[in-house]
From TrEMBL:
Assembly description: Heterodimer with ALG14 to form a functional enzyme.
The protein's enzyme class: transferase
Species of origin: Talaromyces stipitatus (strain ATCC 10500 / CBS 375.48 / QM 6759 / NRRL 1006) (Penicillium stipitatum)
Reaction(s) catalysed (UniProt annotation): an N-acetyl-alpha-D-glucosaminyl-diphospho-di-trans,poly-cis-dolichol + UDP-N-acetyl-alpha-D-glucosamine = an N,N'-diacetylchitobiosyl-diphospho-di-trans,poly-cis-dolichol + UDP + H(+)
UniProt xrefs under InterPro entries: Glyco_trans_28_C, UDP-GlcNAc_transferase
Protein family (similarity comment): Belongs to the glycosyltransferase 28 family.
Lineage of the species this protein comes from: Eukaryota, Fungi, Dikarya, Ascomycota, Pezizomycotina
Single GO MF descriptor: N-acetylglucosaminyldiphosphodolichol N-acetylglucosaminyltransferase activity
Protein's UniProt name: UDP-N-acetylglucosamine transferase subunit ALG13
């Protein structure tokens, strides 16, 4: 007997700066419908410092089995002091456990991006337009340009799901094996700067 595959989309909003608009759009009909259309069965959300009210309201208004859930197992949490690696790894394929490869959708924080890139599944990065002078737009653009991830548009978030599915077939491994001498002198930060074109 064949068991249905579990396919997870993990979303991280960030633990410090609020990003309520991203959380609201992740829980909106177009994004949830796009997940269902592409075979997702679960949505796991790290909703950040101030997102619990938005998440709880959605859960209250859309109990399990209701149409607004789109047959998705939707779970969330605020903050984990030991990081998000375990949650990110839940998106990795595991044939023996009937888990299909999913995606990670992240705010444009450099720490979250680096962790997600090391997991090796398709990544969608969404910059926060409310933050000033933080280079999130530039960082997101460079990552997408180099083929590391999809640049997500906050107002058209559903479009990022098929783009991430397409990226799966061309995803470059991170970090690349040929990074030059910079990796030895400056560590991972140097790798990030080199790979993303942020060298002086």
């Amino acid at each position: 007997m064949t068991h249905p595959s579990r396919k997870v989309c993990f979303v991280t909003i960030g633990a410090t700066a609020p990003f309520d608009t991203l959380l609201s759009n992740v829980l909106a009909q177009p994004f949830l419908e796009a997940l269902k259309k592409h075979g997702y069965t679960a949505l796991l959300i790290q909703y950040g410092k101030e997102g619990q009210e938005i998440f709880d309201t959605f859960i209250k208004n859309n109990p399990p089995g209701s149409p607004g859930r789109y047959d998705l197992d939707i779970q969330g949490f605020g903050f984990k002091k030991d990081g998000l690696v375990q949650e990110m790894r839940s998106t990795k394929a595991n044939e023996s456990q009937h888990i299909a490869e999913g995606i990670i959708l992240s705010h444009a924080g450099s720490g979250s991006i680096m962790e997600a890139l090391r997991i090796g599944v398709p990544l969608v990065v969404v910059p926060n337009p409310a933050l000033q002078d933080n280079h999130q737009e530039d960082l997101t653009r460079q990552i997408a340009k180099n083929g590391w991830a999809v640049a997500g548009n906050l107002n058209r978030l559903a479009e990022s799901v098929p783009k991430a599915e397409k990226l799966r077939s061309t995803l470059r491994s991170w970090p690349s094996k040929d990074r030059g001498e910079l990796k030895d002198s400056r560590g991972l930060a140097g790798v990030v700067e080199e790979e993303m074109g942020f060298l002086d």
